[in-house]
Description:
Blueprint: H1 7-11, E1 14-16, H2 23-30, E2 37-51, E3 57-73, H3 77-88, E4 93-101, E5 104-112, E6 120-123, H4 126-145, H5 153-175, E7 190-200, E8 204-212, E9 223-229, E10 232-240, E11 245-252, H6 254-259, E12 265-268, E13 270-273, H7 280-292, E14 298-305, E15 315-322, E16 332-333, E17 342-348, H8 349-357, H9 364-382
Parallel strand pairs: 10-15
Antiparallel strand pairs: 1-3, 2-3, 2-6, 4-5, 7-8, 8-9, 10-11, 10-13, 11-12, 11-17, 14-15, 16-17
Amino acid sequence: MALSQSKSEIMRNLFFYGTLRHEALLETVLGDAGVAALRPAQLPGYRAYWADGHGFPFLTQEPGGQAIGLLAEGLSDDAIARLDFYEGGFGYGLHPVTVQTDHGPVAAQVWLVPDGTYDRGAPFDLDDWARCRAALNVRAAAEVMGLYGTRSAAEVARMYPMIEMRAQSWVMGRAEQVPDAPGGMTRADVDLIDSQTPYIDYFAVESQRLRFRKFSGDMGPEVHYASFVATDAALVLPYDPVRDRVMLVEQFRMGPQVRGDRVPWQLEPIAGRIDADETPEQTARREALEEAGLELRGLELISRAYPSPGCSNEYFHTYLGLADLPEDAAGVGGLLAESEDIRSHILSFDAAMGMADRGEIRVVPLLMALYWLARHRDRLRAGA
Length: 384
């Protein structure tokens, strides 16, 4: 009988009710460890719900509930350790349960969180998750498991929001429809030999050995290049076409600080990194509210572009945000949880352009947005 299994056998059986039911994600987490057998199973008395505000589910006890999942049997010590690393930093712990299979009950273990760890969202649906998040989570899992054996699960959990944002950036980059380069070459003309991540935390550095096709048509020699790894970001320059005013924000910036600049505080557009479940437009609106208390009436796309493609994957979605900008719209904002201290300034269009002409604006995305506004200002004012 299944219920007469030994304790060691039970510990090698795990019940997956959430995202680990997705084949590509499970393979990414397990790596070479693999899984001996997978078969459908149900856990009576439980139901899976989204953790509100997160991209994963959790189980709650519920009379009459039935959690649908997969039973993984005969897992190796390495497989269990890898799975525990992937799950462990988010408050999950293994607990003994009895699941139902087509061949009767089987003793196994399942990851549960203590009551109150997460707020309950909607019922979890694997197909819904796969449509909106599978590619992102598989990419994020690859980065997480690259840290296995070098970082603790708690450290990875601390870094995970940025890991997800980096994954989101990668997914967006793969999906974005962009024009061909004049030379006609694409990613297919790059031979990637090896990729390493020698530094990873809030940001990361990726180092690659590769060859790429030369304009002569021949493949070039092997080279060793590196890139600063950040995320996609949304930037917005608020503009009031009726009053002909812009809003600029001022804050301390680490780049000028590290460079040795006498003035680390810079004037910029409103900006923020795109969260895993956001579109660039949603980020632009959220950041305008967080940094300046500003509700935008509309967005006009200025550009989608790399600010420094020679050394960084950072990618900017830059907008003009149509807004009402009375004198009292300026102030100090930002999120205390992110140590933000941001002062907003209301300037006439002419005053802002005067600052640009005098070299007083030293952040390229802001200069670009102002020059774009200069080109489109008459149209925007005529339609206000």
